Amino acid sequence: MNFNSISLRKKNLTALVCLIIIACSSDSENSDSIDDENNDSNLELSINIDSKTFGVDEILSLSIESNENLKTICMSVDDWSSSQCTSSLDNTGLGESLVAKLSFYNLGTKTINIKIENYAGEERETKLDVNIEKKNTVTLKQIHFNSFNNIGESWDAEFLDSDENRLADLTLILQKRKYNNSFVGYESNSVNHIKWLTSDILENQGDLTWELNENNLLIAPENKFSIYLYDFDGPDPNIPDQNLYQEILLGWPYEKEFSFEEYMGNKPNEITFVNEDIDLEVVFEVEWN
Ligand SMILES: [Ca+2]
Ligand SMILES: [Ca+2]
């Protein structure tokens, strides 16, 4: 299994995190201004946003404004565990304002941290909370497989054809597209993928069903997600702490993205996706928010 998009992101993000933070932060309604008490610099920072509530997967715009030409701007949505920074490549500066675009893939109150640096090496930092709500999203309630490649047949050749242990021990993984938080005019990739669900294992196919009521899996109907299904084969005898899996949906080039966009009119509670190339038929029970 390969989910290196997440680690790639982390690599990108850590590159420019500033070393010394003269931190000062406040959190007011729609605009936060900072005055540093400890020096006589006039560097100012304010951030403005149109609303404080957004939907899951919705792209929100944040205006970052200063009174000086900025050398670097950074943002973080995980309290600086990771961050995204931009600087002007030709060293002429970013100007006095820049727009950041972000999205959040799940519900909750999210804190956006912003930090700026001018050419004198002075920094300012501020933060803003937004609430991510259900809005016009779809909640996944249940996933059931009617068919997949080699269903009911052997995925574990060590067992006899009469032994039910030959059946696949199913693990389902969902990945969802997520807008790549970025600064307008300085985007690299517009999209990355996040691991959205790693399911329990259904031994020997189980009932081919995962109940997802407790998982809070919300998606904007127009956003895309991918399905990965594996036969779990237990610990790898050669690599400590690693497990072995067999790919049931055959992977690239058969892997396919899905969305609920074409169902926005009727809003059915049961949606079936079929991919005949890999004998896939999967039924989603959903709720329209
Ligand atoms: Ca197997
Ligand atoms: Ca098995």
Describe the structure.
- The chain is mainly beta and 289 residues long.
- The protein has 2 domains: 45-133, Immunoglobulin-like (Sandwich), CATH 2.60.40; 138-288, Immunoglobulin-like (Sandwich).
- It is built from 1 helix and 19 strands.
- The strands form 4 sheets. Strands 2-8-7-4-5 form a 5-stranded mixed β-sheet. Strands 9, 13, 14, 18 and 19 form a 5-stranded antiparallel β-sheet that branches. Strands 10, 12, 15, 16 and 17 form a 5-stranded antiparallel β-sheet that branches.
- β18 (270-275) and β19 (280-288) form a beta hairpin.
- The longest helix is centred in the first third of the chain and has 11 residues, at 4-14.
- The radius of gyration is 23 Å and the shape is elongated.
- The protein starts with a helix and ends with a strand.
- Bound molecules: calcium ion (2 copies).
- One calcium ion is lined by residues 155-156, 231, 233, 246.
- One calcium ion (CA) binds next to β15.
